[in-house]
Write a structure and sequence with these properties.
Elements lengths: L4 E4 L9 E7 L3 E3 L2 E6 L4 E10 L5 E3 L2 E6 L4 E9 L5 E2 L2 E6 L4 E8 L5 E4 L2 E4 L4 E10 L4 E4 L2 E4 L5 E10 L4 E10 L4 E11 L5 E10 L4 E11 L2 H9 L4 H13 L8 H17 L2
Parallel strand pairs: 1-4, 2-5, 3-6, 4-7, 5-8, 6-9, 7-10, 8-11, 9-12, 10-13, 11-14, 12-15, 13-16, 14-17, 15-18, 16-18, 17-19, 18-20, 19-21
Helix pairs in contact: 1-2, 2-3
């Protein structure tokens, strides 16, 4: 029930971002169906925020479909801020036409109880995708986040970068998959986790697969903690310990902002600041 429908007509380039917000104001299940269509040669930025009233127990099951036409570009930013008794199950599918470009940034900023999502992207010939996420696990959260990109067309390319923080008793699983089907396709997958407490748990599951000999797929996966020598180095330079830790956490979660349109970079900077603040 509900949701939003956005259509950007052929060869239309929007100067300002489109903003959508989903708010769960009553106890129960929210199941919106969202559709975004960016037609051939068009370009748009869509930013969304999803949240819940602090006192409510709720389930969010958002079904989202994205269609990016030939030579079109869609930048999609989604920021989630739930409460500690929310259960969140987004379901997302993306189809990108030949020479199209899909750029995605997702952030979870809250003490969600459970979060499970696995968006899938299919790329046409010479199509591109950049999928970036910052996941914050707090309290007793159980988070299973990931995504897959299928490089179906020849010379398709993708970068998938997931960065997760786990504190208190949070359990965080990050998954990523790249599957090459087209000749000359290229992809890089990165799953990185940072442990901020002894009782937290993290698991990184990177997957690479190919149906063609002519593909180049790489991955990097890591789970670790803040290096004490790096903290001590910053303290020796005059920073307080909390300031030093904040700098290191911000460096960990930062993405290359030049990848995003100028009017999105401020949103990403604000998100990163909030993630650092909520990490302590």
């Amino acid at each position: 029930k509900g949701g939003y429908y956005i259509r950007v007509k052929r060869n239309t380039r929007l100067e300002e971002p489109i903003l959508a917000c989903l708010f769960l104001s009553t106890r129960g299940i929210q199941a919106p169906h969202n559709i975004v269509v960016v037609e051939e040669g068009a370009e748009a930025v869509v930013t969304t925020g999803c949240t819940i009233a602090p006192e409510n127990v709720g389930v969010h099951i958002g079904i989202s479909e994205f269609y990016v036409g030939e030579r079109a570009k869609l930048t999609f930013v989604m920021v989630h801020s739930w409460n500690h008794v929310s259960h969140v199950r987004p379901r997302t599918a993306v189809v990108v036409g030949d020479e199209g470009y899909y750029l995605n940034y997702y952030a979870n900023l809250s003490r969600v109880r459970t979060l499970q999502t696995y968006p899938e992207v299919k790329l046409g010939t010479r199509a591109r995708a950049g999928v970036y996420s910052v996941i914050l696990g707090l309290g007793r959260a159980s988070i299973d986040y990931g995504g897959a990109v299928y490089l179906d067309g020849d010379e398709a390319s993708a970068e998938v970068v997931s960065k997760a923080l786990a504190r208190e008793e949070a359990r965080v699983v990050t998954r990523g998959r790249l599957h090459a089907r087209g000749r000359g396709s290229k992809g890089h997958l990165e799953c990185r986790g940072l442990m901020l407490s002894e009782k937290a748990y993290m698991l990184a599951v990177p997957e690479l697969s190919s149906d063609t000999l002519d593909a180049t797929l790489t991955h990097e996966a890591s789970i670790g903690r803040l290096a004490e020598e790096e903290v001590n180095y910053l303290v020796s330079k005059g920073f307080k310990r909390d300031e030093a830790v904040s700098l290191l956490v911000k460096g960990f979660i930062s993405v290359e902002e030049n990848v995003f349109p100028p009017k999105v970079r401020g949103i990403i900077s604000s998100v990163e600041k909030l993630v650092v603040e909520k990490s302590f």
